[in-house]
Amino acid sequence: MLVAAGTTLVDGRMLERVVADYEAERPEVTLSVVGAPTARVLALARAGSADVTITHDPREERRFSAEGRAALDVEVFSSKFILAGPGSAVRDLAGMGAPEAFGKIAEQGHLFVSRADGSGTYQTERRLWSQAGVDPTGRDWYVQTRQGMGLTLQVASQREAFVLVELSVFLAAEHVWGLVDARLDPAGLHNPYRAMVVKDSSVVEASEDFVKWLRSGAGRESVRRANQELYGFQVFVP
């Protein structure tokens, strides 16, 4: 079974722990996990190259499901985004709503590094810029990497810039020296993940079993245990 998942789940290492628990309970099943931006994950599913998708882009997920491509479509857990930035610049943003903070970054011309790669993280970033009434495209202070979260964080660290990042990836990264959580108001930074079984998969029954397991008592306990082992608290909430 091939599980195509958003890079945040792979980079943050949570999914590999949960998959290992599932395989231990189902030794006859082998899961392969591929991490990619949401747009790429759903393209793989449309091409018949994935059996299960786990993503965090509600608009694209609704579109995929509306096309009749999902045999099963459920939310499995959620996390949150944070705005990270250089310690010297984040203090003035603490407690702000995300759109207000984004507006202030634009007003003051602080460097901001964006993935710009079709990921769920990028779609959330775009929504927040829109809510702030700002189009950052082409601005001198707006840097687009068109790469994954790991490289984007590294660029933000090197350039002492702001970046929107899923909390687990930020906690797992070892190369974000100087970047700290701006501690914004969490409203609008909620990050739900949906699992979808691809209708045309050749292993629909097994794929549905995995997704249903994620929502079962055993699956939820696996998620909680992985959180505790990796981060020391519940980043992903079943």
What does this structure look like?
The chain is α/β, with parallel strands linked by helices and 238 residues long. The chain has helices at 7-11, 14-25, 38-46, 58-66, 87-90, 98-108, 120-132, 149-159, 167-172, 204-214, 217-231; strands at residues 2-6, 32-36, 52-55, 70-86, 112-114, 142-144, 163-166, 179-181, 190-198. The strands form 2 sheets. Strands 1, 2, 3, 4, 7, 8 and 9 form a 7-stranded mixed beta sheet that branches. A two-stranded parallel sheet has the order 5-6. Helix 2 (14-25) packs across helix 11 and helix 6 packs across helix 7.
Which range best describes the helical content: under 10%, 10-25%, 25-40%, 40-55%, 55-70% or over 70%? Answer: 40-55%
Number of helices: 11
Which sequence of SSEs, written as H and E, runs from N to C?
A: EHHEHEHEHHEHEHEHEEHH
- State mean pLDDT (0 to 100 scale): 94
* Multimeric organization: single chain
Proportion of residues in β-strands:
15-25%
Distance N to C terminus: 22 Å
Helix/strand class: alpha/beta
Low-confidence stretches: none
Largest sheet: 7 strands, mixed
Based on CA atoms alone, the radius of gyration comes out at 18 Å
Strand tally = 9
Global morphology:
globular
Provide a quick synopsis of the model.
The protein has helices at residues 7-11, 14-25, 38-46, 58-66, 87-90, 98-108, 120-132, 149-159, 167-172, 204-214, 217-231, and strands spanning 2-6, 32-36, 52-55, 70-86, 112-114, 142-144, 163-166, 179-181, 190-198. The protein is of the alpha/beta class and 238 residues long.
